[in-house]
Design a protein that fits this description.
By secondary structure, the protein is an alpha+beta fold. Helix content is 31%, strand content 23%. It has five helices and nine strands, in the order βαββαββααββββα. A hairpin with a 2-residue loop joins strand 8 and strand 9 (255-263). The radius of gyration is 18 Å and the shape is globular. The protein starts with a strand and ends with a helix.
Length: 279
């Protein structure tokens, strides 16, 4: 099942390695901070908003870009929080930042994060309720042009966690490499047509129940973006795209996920049409 961002009974947890509760919460926050940085960079490099509406800051010791529009920052923050809630449930197989043509609604690009190999997050939800949630991770510390709040991405001593299972310096290095590769790809890819829009989607595991409730943060994706499932034998026509570019495999300690970008048929057709019109 594929859902878009526009809680229910717990689903079976991820099948990855079990982590002690403090490490699991810390690692999950590191990933959601990374996801927030990636979304803002995608919006910048793919020209979804004018470049002058972004601040240049630093994250993972890299220059990164963040929208300075309060409503965009709030939307990204809420979307990442909604993704985090589903990650805690162990319900998510992939996360997608989907860019549509604003007029024809064709799928231009899907920036994919495969988190099927994530570790188990049992107990994280209860801990976060006691700690009053995961904090404001979307806006970080970048509103004044400074650095993103990366407290979640390291343990402060540059070394391994106390029990030696997670080396936070290695986590930072891997996430830095992924951000760098994503930025390079976004900068070099064929420009998108004017008026494109975007959304954040999650592809759920087959055994996971759809998140419902009020207010409803998720709505079903269009049929062309629905994944293969027991009820749907064939995936939607835009799943996989017409061209796929690998970005990075992140593998450090218990953290494992893959990133890639899919360019849709609508984008390929638009690029061909634009090239023909210039000849």
């Amino acid at each position: 099942m594929s859902l878009e961002n526009s809680h229910h009974q717990p689903a079976p947890p991820s099948e990855g390695p079990f982590l002690p509760l403090p490490q699991a919460s810390h690692l999950l926050t590191s990933f959601t901070q990374f996801l927030t940085v990636c979304i803002h960079n995608i919006l910048y490099y793919r020209g979804l908003y004018p470049s002058q509406t972004f601040l240049t800051s630093r994250a993972y010791n890299l220059p990164v870009h963040q929208s300075r529009h309060p409503r965009v920052c709030a939307w990204v923050r809420d979307a990442v929080d909604a993704v985090r809630a589903q990650l805690v449930r162990g319900a998510v197989e992939r996360i997608a930042v989907v860019i549509h043509d604003g007029r024809a609604r064709g799928v231009m690009e899907r920036w994919m994060f495969d988190v099927a190999g994530f570790p188990a997050w049992q107990g994280v939800a209860g801990r976060e309720q006691q700690d009053s949630g995961g904090g404001d991770i979307a806006e970080g510390g970048a509103e004044d042009g400074g650095e993103w709040d990366e407290d979640a991405a390291g343990d402060g001593n540059g070394g391994a966690a106390e029990d030696g299972k997670v080396n936070w310096t290695d986590v930072d290095e891997q996430l830095r490499a992924a951000v760098r590769r994503l930025a390079y790809a976004g900068e070099k890819m064929t420009p998108l047509p004017a008026g494109c829009t975007f959304t954040v989607a999650v592809e759920l595991r087959d055994e996971s129940e759809a998140p419902i409730g009020h207010p409803q943060p998720w709505v079903p994706s269009q049929p062309n973006l629905q994944t293969k499932s027991k009820q749907k034998q064939n995936p939607g026509e835009d799943i996989g795209g017409a061209k796929t570019t690998p970005l990075r495999i992140v593998e450090v300690g218990p953290l494992f996920f893959e990133c890639w970008v899919e360019e849709g048929k609508a984008k390929i057709e638009h690029s061909s049409t634009a090239a023909s019109s210039k000849e």
